[in-house]
Design brief:
3-stranded antiparallel sheet; NXPE4_C
Length: 756
């Protein structure tokens, strides 16, 4: 538990991740773009007052607003900057010493007739040390001067943000002869005096001058790269400017990946109602437990007073009522959702930025692959893509995706492209699995549809309510939900063509192929009609499901990125089941899928195709260009993997139970990671145990996996209650669900209006 102020942590502590990435002690720092900096500072006046080191910070700060600014002009004079498009004024005022002149300037801002700057950044000391040759008298005078300035700064802090920048250490070996008197010992003495005086001045005041001491820590790591031993290298100055921007702008802009200086978001109306619901569920379940316990005591064996013998009631297994199971599930879910909220909405636990290194990604990958091999078992059946094999496939892919997310590997393009194939493979399985079910079973009933939709969406709907996030935020679930409905509509509309019907007449196979061609044509047209696509999903209330940040572009991007792979999965299922029906493939235990010659040729082609894709993905230089090709070529590596995994009989007959176990809860793992493994909506890492990164990952991972497994069981239990097989009961439940979502929609409209 970190009970302190994240702003103070941002200004005073942290460490480097690698050489250039600064990590504050307890929170995440957002990297501001020029447009964001302008939006934050619109109509603002910022003043930097001090010596050459403050001038450096001034230039780094204004480059966040306009990167084209050059460091030119009078170095020992005032430097103005103005961005007229956003009405931003940033001034540097040359006051190299804390003296009467600086005091007079600061005092002028405290007088009523003068407009006060919104942000004041001040600091000076090295000139006093240099001019007075490091004398003790100069330090005494510095203390007197800063004591006289402190009350004025406190007065300004009531209406402005005031920062006092402590002096950075110097690299004494590199200092020129006329700066040799500036020693780290002297700098520490001046800093100590400034901190003591400013803190004592603010002790009796509600407002306070913020001491910018983090620059010292940054300088300790980077001052040896200085060109003169006194001034910081550019990367360190930029870090200081970014920290300053985070301190002021995070509470205004509220970036997702900038948890420093952000207040805890207030509870929404829907969140309050959810809290009440889960509280009532817990109370209701406790009441049922007490009633059952009381009944159990009454039915306990008792002594017959007349005969002196003990009467023993017949043993029976207690029947758990539907209400009890329902309340039990919601009770557990309520406790789990409390943990979710505390992890990623309450400012209770620390959060850190991700930092990618090759070792942080590839070492865990090797580790889990070795573990997976150790848990090899024989499959119950040896068909292509049997249940154990698909669970295994989902499992290892999910583990790789989790490592990809926590390590921040999206910054490394070859890894990103391979992960895109894994996401495509999930969608391929969606096409393959649902097509196979409808084709073989011919079951287009409402029960099947409701079961699938409930299992896919239950957790996400609950998280949308509890975590106050739009449905599209959990993009994968909307994606598989929409594709499931597309598969269902394609096969369910007239004429319904299933395997049983097609076996009687081969022409039905051509009818199904015609349906698939129509589906492919629709996908192709939509993929090149962004305007039409966005219009379809922008209609209210559909827009409530697919909008993110006020538009449906994210949904368009996600859909387009893997637009063909579900069709590829359906087509593969059709071809495979047709070959299987005509006994053109051998699926016996230990038998190759085809004749030895054909199997060897296909295996060779598959390995070459698999490696060719990897070489192409690893040579990608531009993410946008590679994403354009990805929808068409991702199927190459997916099909290659399927053939490599299934052609050899021995390989097809075994599976990893380790990966298969994770595969059974892969959807829950993918969704839960957003808030209780990662942090700040996947932008950072949750820190339960500060200072011990590896131990923290072990503990948070254990909790995360247990929670995902528990939610999977809760979903299965509730699916049996909410989606019964009886059609009349199911219809009533659907009406209740429709009412629930109507109410949710109404509350969300009220909530949006209150926000605006």
């Amino acid at each position: 538990f970190k009970g302190g102020d994240t702003c103070e942590d941002l200004l005073s502590s942290g460490r480097f991740l690698g050489e250039k990435v600064w990590q504050p002690h307890s929170c995440m720092m957002h990297k501001y773009k020029n447009s964001e900096a302008k939006n934050c500072l619109i109509d603002k006046h910022v003043v930097f007052i001090g010596d050459s080191r403050i001038r450096q910070l001034f230039y780094s700060f204004i480059k966040l607003i306009n990167p084209q600014v050059k460091e030119e002009g009078n170095k020992h004079g005032n430097i103005p900057f103005e961005d007229k498009s956003a009405s931003i004024k940033v001034d540097f005022l040359w006051y190299p010493e804390v003296n009467g002149s600086m005091r007079q300037r600061i005092k002028s801002w405290t007088e009523g007739s003068v407009a006060k700057p919104h942000i004041i950044v001040a600091g000076a000391a090295t000139w006093s040390i240099k001019i007075h040759n490091g004398s003790n008298e100069a330090l005494t005078q510095y203390k007197i001067n800063i004591t006289s300035i402190a009350p004025l700064l406190e007065k300004l802090a009531k209406s402005s943000d005031v920062y006092w920048v402590l002096q950075d250490p110097v690299y004494e070996e590199m200092l020129s002869e006329n700066r040799k008197m500036i020693t780290n010992e002297k700098i520490d003495a001046y800093n100590e005096a400034a901190v003591r005086i400013l803190n004592s001045s603010s002790r009796n005041s509600k407002t306070k001058v913020k001491v910018f001491s983090v620059s010292k820590l940054i300088a300790q790591e980077t001052i040896m790269k200085s060109t003169d031993g006194l001034h910081l290298p550019e990367s360190s100055r930029d870090t200081n400017a970014m920290i300053l921007m985070n301190v002021y702008c995070n509470k205004i802009m509220k970036p997702i990946d900038g948890s420093c200086c952000q207040p805890q978001p207030p509870l929404t109306l829907i969140q309050k109602l959810a809290f009440c619901f889960f509280t009532l569920s817990i109370i209701g379940y406790l009441i049922i437990i007490l009633i059952n316990r009381n009944n159990f005591r009454k039915n306990k064996s008792c002594t017959d007073l007349e005969s002196g013998e003990e009467k023993k009631p017949a043993l029976s297994v207690p029947n758990v009522s539907t209400l009890e199971m329902l309340l039990h599930s919601f009770c557990k879910l309520g406790l789990i959702m409390t943990y979710f909220y505390l992890c990623d909405r309450a400012n209770l636990f620390m959060k850190e930025n991700k930092f990618y290194t090759h070792s942080s990604f590839f070492i865990p990958i090797i580790y889990i692959l070795v573990l997976g091999v150790f848990y090899t078992e024989n499959t119950k059946e040896t068909k292509v893509l049997n249940r154990e094999q698909t669970d295994e496939w989902k499992g290892w892919m999910q583990l790789v995706i989790l490592i990809y997310h926590i390590s921040g590997a999206s910054t490394f393009l070859p890894v990103y492209m391979h992960i895109r194939v894994l996401v495509a493979a999930y969608l391929f399985q969606t096409g393959y699995g649902h097509f196979s079910y409808f084709w073989i079973k011919g079951d287009f009933g409402v029960y099947r549809v409701c079961q699938v939709l409930f299992r896919l969406n239950f957790l996400v709907v609950v998280l949308c309510i509890v975590m106050d996030r739009p449905y599209q935020f959990y993009y994968f679930v909307p994606l598989v939900t929409v594709w499931f409905m597309i598969i269902y509509a394609t096969l369910a509309i007239w004429p319904q063509i299933v395997q049983k019907k097609a076996n009687g007449n081969c022409l039905w196979h051509f009818g199904l192929l015609l349906k698939l061609i129509c589906l492919l044509t629709c996908i192709y047209i939509l993929s090149y009609s962004q305007g039409a696509f966005e219009k379809v999903f922008s209609f209210w209330p559909l827009s409530k499901c697919f909008e993110l940040n006020g538009n449906v572009y994210e949904w368009w991007f996600r859909w387009k990125l893997d637009r063909y792979v579900v069709f590829h999965g359906m087509l593969f299922a059709f071809i495979y089941l047709a070959l299987q029906k005509r006994q053109m493939i051998s699926e016996g235990k230990g038998d190759p899928l085809f004749s030895n010659r054909v199997s060897n040729v296909l295996l060779f082609i598959s390995i070459v195709s698999f490696l060719s894709y990897s070489i192409w993905a690893s040579s990608c230089k531009n993410k946008t260009e590679c994403n354009e090709l990805h929808p068409s070529v991702s199927v190459v590596q997916i099909l290659a993997f399927i053939l490599i995994r299934n052609i050899p009989g021995y390989v097809r007959s075994v599976y990893s139970s380790f990966f298969a176990w994770f595969g059974k809860i892969s959807l829950e793992l993918f969704i839960c990671q957003y808030h209780i493994w990662l942090a700040a909506d996947t932008k950072g890492i949750l820190v339960l145990i500060p200072g011990y990164p590896m131990f923290n990952v072990l503990v948070s991972t254990f909790i995360f996996v247990c929670v995902a497994h528990e939610i999977s069981q809760i979903t299965n239990d509730l699916a049996q209650i909410v989606v019964p097989k009886d059609n009349s009961t199911l219809l009533k439940r659907l009406l209740c669900i429709a009412g629930f979502f109507s109410g949710l929609l109404l509350f969300s409209v009220v909530q949006d209006q209150s926000r605006h």
